[in-house]
Amino acid sequence: MSKKWVIRIALFCVMLLVMLGAARMRMGSDSMSQNIALSSGKSVACTVDLAKEGALKRLLSPNIYALSLRIQPEAKAKLRVEGSGMEMFLSQGSKKGIWTELTPADELQYKAGKGKNMQGQGKNINSNIPLNIELRVPREALNRHDVAQGTLRFYAGQKEYAQVIIKVINSAI
Prior knowledge:
- Helices cover 17% and strands 40% of the residues.
- It has helices at 3-26, 55-60, and strands at residues 31-38, 43-49, 64-73, 79-84, 87-91, 111-112, 127-136, 146-156, 159-169.
- The N and C termini lie far apart (51 Å).
- 20% of the residues are buried.
């Protein structure tokens, strides 16, 4: 084999390694999953750190972040959700399917759990509410430590049941 072919094969291998490394950096870095126990009349905080994004994600769409919540209310109630404070797209679609937007009038659907314990609780969970949120923050705010803050308000009937305060930060700054 000539020297030229050896160099081409070596460059091709390096290119494959770089592409696989870039894909690995992106995996799981543009989303976050969290279990949240909701109590009636209480507020729960959820912090999203944009500094944990991969390099490829920061380059392509640094102001969009997917947040996957598993909500466990203390009592099985018919809940609705409404987001405010920042641009949010709320859905109960699967992670791999097409998300349909939830309106404030839509009742949240429960999903059967697997009997695992949630952090800080001694009881088994029979069901939870999966909630997927696509957060969009202004690009100008990405250069600040406190990027944005929004609130998810859960309603049981007309009465506010609980709140989840979503705080988006950039700990790299």
